[in-house]
Here is the input.
Amino acid sequence: MANLLSIAEQAWRQLFPNPGDEAKITKEEFVATSKTEYAYQLWLKLMADKREEGVMEVPSYLLSEVDLDVQDNVMDISSLKIMRSIPWEQWLQNIGGINCLCKYVKSTLNHAQLLCDDDGIGDNDKTYYVVGKKIKFPRGTHSNNLSLTYVNSGEKIDGSIEVEDSIGGIVRRSLIEIYGGKIGPEDTTNNTNGEK
Here is the structure.
């Protein structure tokens, strides 16, 4: 797996091989653009997979599991680094675990309002829907602590962002394409004045 931060730095150094103290385009700008470009390229790949295979599966290396508390039938997910560019809210893969006695069924705010308790699911099954950075459970939960499997933004604890090599290559080319016309002259004097 490639590291998105090192890909951004490699592209930056390719365009600015010996940057001075104040480069016209900073490495931080490259890193920020690489994150959005990565999300976009992953979205394109998922859409292509959906067209070709008829199904869209999120790469397993992006899945994370966490146990979160539920208070007043609401789960706070504001602390999670979620890749929300995944369409149809497939960033939320599972609640409650696979072997749970109670099944959690994804709904939407509109469906919950429309159906109320007339949704045809079993008595032990629970519905949920996402509102901003909260997950709401209109029929309650079987426990005050639930496991959640979601698509993370690629960030790991050490600050690296792992990306699939093929998408990493596309991101690097995209960064060079985006910033390529904005190449500043090399500051050989290192006096923060790259203009000659």
